[in-house]
Amino acid sequence: xxxxxxxxxxxxxxxxxxxxxxxxxxxxxxxxxxxxxxxxKKTARLRQLRLEKEAAEEAANPAPEKxxxxxxx
Length: 73
What we know:
Shape: rod-shaped
């Protein structure tokens, strides 16, 4: 009897295949979420850099004033 108890305690039981699938699903969702956050962070950083660059270019090269057409008499 003592031998059967030690074998049942140390032997891993059969795992349900859905448990493994659930683990894979959770892991993949975590990876996708991390990639999404990294992509959003990068996009925000690049947008900020682009806006700063456009503002610097606008300050350095102001747009020429529009001329209104004058009628010749």
